[in-house]
Amino acid sequence: MPPAHSPISPDSLEGQGPSAPTGGTNDAIDALDGRLIRLLAEEPRIGVLECSRRLQVARGTVQARLDRLQAKGVIGGFGPEVDPAALGYPVTAFATLEISQGQGADVRAHLAAVPEVLELHTITGRGDMMVRIVARSNADLQRVIDRVVGFDGIVRSSTAIALENPVPYRILPLVDQAAAE
């Protein structure tokens, strides 16, 4: 177990027994879990001991809750949030891809090898996959698209450039709702 003042890391979550939620109708999280997730989202470098102080629960309770939330997949990691624009990739686009029948695994492997592909989702509707890609400029976006679609398993693509992101990826409103159920 790490010292009480250390930030929470995946290694600090090992070896502690899980704890069941203690309220609400939602079996994923309860109000205390919601408060813990919010605290970690707002202050990701906070340690387990400080979490316990702020939440006014025992340190072991916080650690057990973190273990359970990680084991259930509610908390997927403790890494930093990285802004692609700050790395020099300010252009974001979404490409819908149609793929050849039976080529899904090969296309997934191809797309996973392209660093500018940030996400890949299989979808319903027009197209089979949707990817979020980034580029250094609009001209560089053409290079990225050429690399993405330059694979025999991809039959057709359609790309839309994101102009702004007025509601960036967020999870806390959903956490609050799930904790209140």
Features of the shown structure:
4-stranded antiparallel sheet; 4 strands; disordered N terminus; Alpha-Beta Plaits; 35% helix; alpha+beta; Arc Repressor Mutant, subunit A; single chain; 181 residues
List the helices and strands and how they pair.
Elements: H1 31-42, H2 48-55, H3 59-71, E1 91-99, H4 104-112, E2 117-122, E3 129-135, H5 138-149, E4 154-161, H6 172-180
Antiparallel strand pairs: 1-3, 1-4, 2-3
Briefly characterize the structure.
The chain has 181 residues and is of the alpha+beta class. 35% of the residues lie in helices and 17% in strands.
CATH first level of the largest domain: Alpha Beta
Shape field: elongated
Radius of gyration: 21 Å
Provide the residue-averaged pLDDT.
Answer: 87
Largest β sheet strand count, sense and barrel closure: 4 strands, antiparallel
- CATH superfamily heading of the largest domain: Lrp/AsnC effector binding domain/regulation of amino acid metabolism (RAM) domain
The strand count comes to 4
What do we call the CATH topology of the largest domain? Answer: Alpha-Beta Plaits
- Sequence of secondary-structure elements: HHHEHEEHEH
Question: What is the domain total for the residues?
Answer: 2
Q: Biggest sheet, strands in spatial order?
A: 2-3-1-4
